[in-house]
Amino acid sequence: MRKGILTLTTCTALLASTVAACGDETETAAPEKKGRIGVILPDSKSSARWENADRKYLKEAFDAVGIESDIQNAQGDKTSFQTIADQMITNGATVLLIVNLDSGTGKAVIAKARSRGVAVIDYDRLTLGGGAEYYVSFDNVKVGTLQGEGLVKCLTDKGAQKPIVAELNGSPTDNNATLFKNGYDGVLKPKYDAGEYVKGPDQSVPDWDNTKAGTIFEQMLTGQPKIAGVLAANDGLGNAAIAVLKKQKLNGQVPVTGQDATVQGLQNILAGDQCMTVYKAIKKEADAAAELAVALATGEKGETNGTVKDPETGAEVPSVLLEPQAIFKENVKDVVADGYVTKAELCTGDFAQKCAEAGIQ
Ligand code: BGC
Predict the structure, then answer these.
(1) DSSP code, position 54
(2) How many Å is the Cα radius of gyration of the chain?
């Protein structure tokens, strides 16, 4: 079937130039006919990772194997997402890598692609009911578990007694946000049930919108001024909460979590305003996705390390899931050592001193 995908798209591409070449068996089997990989990133505001890390690492991975790629960003617009996908298919993409804006958008793209013989990889976010060929991501429940455990560690370090915990969850339309929440609630719920912690406000942030997160957290803190810990699902949401806490001079006293090891998140950790973040080695994610995309484009079977069940269809999607890592002030240096952020971007101005204290070389 994958061979079929290649032949069909190769023919489509060849049709544009020379119709005669299409039926030629040797032409279609030629290794250089790998086509083009289209990548659709979701936005550039919900996390710095998409433009700063994913774009760069994906481009490098495709360049390294000499396959052409077209990487675009839907900027949070579901109609653009669809249009970009259509254009990529028309322009001869053999494989699409998508980070869906919600499962509905992803599903429509996968269905269209499939009808044109174009394979799709769900990159980072699973499209529920979509049926992509592959799914490449991190163990997202583990991400949430690390956040929950991280918050517990920071609250314990502060000697918090019966802390009221607020939860600022990711977008309700992102399956990852559900998985993160499953992870951290798995840690926090037993604490609530045992009366060790008090469950405070718990709200999702539409589209991971950082501005909305600020408004939501402002309302949370007005309604419950004694919030003593904030489980924020990523660094952007965490930063929005920190900005509100700053206005009440509560920053640094109320631990806040995050995710993505963004420069802003790491600086908030160095400043003592954020308790932890979760580092996901995006280079590994991009490399794994690129490898599978090339396999699909060349009709080979790709290497996966498991399957993920699509809760809508029950289908087991062949997947690559990578391990996330918890980052606290003590090991911010690991993220720099891994090359994910540079000392130059992180250790600016007042952070130079804090970087030195944190052993960042
Ligand atoms: C990603 C996170 C990101 C969030 C907002 C999630 O699906 O896994 O890394 O912070 O989307 O873009």
Answers:
(1) I
(2) 22
Beta strands in 74-216 (DSSP E): 93-98, 119-123, 134-138, 164-169, 198-204
> What is the tens place of the pLDDT at every residue in 204-241?
999 999 999 999 999 999 999 999 999 999 999 999 99
Rounded CA separation 330/98 (Å): 35
Q: Is there an atom of ligand 1 within 6 Å of 319 CB?
A: no
Of 96 and 26, which is predicted with more confidence? 96
Q: What is the pTM of this model?
A: 0.91
Is the CB of residue 47 below 6 angstroms from any atom belonging to ligand 1?
Answer: yes
Confidence of residue 301 (pLDDT cuts 50, 70, 90): confident
Mean pLDDT over 149-162 rounds to 98
HSE-up (13 A, CA, CB side) for residue 224: 17
Neighbours of 102 (CB within 10 A): 19
Ligand 1 atom nearest residue 50's Cα: 12
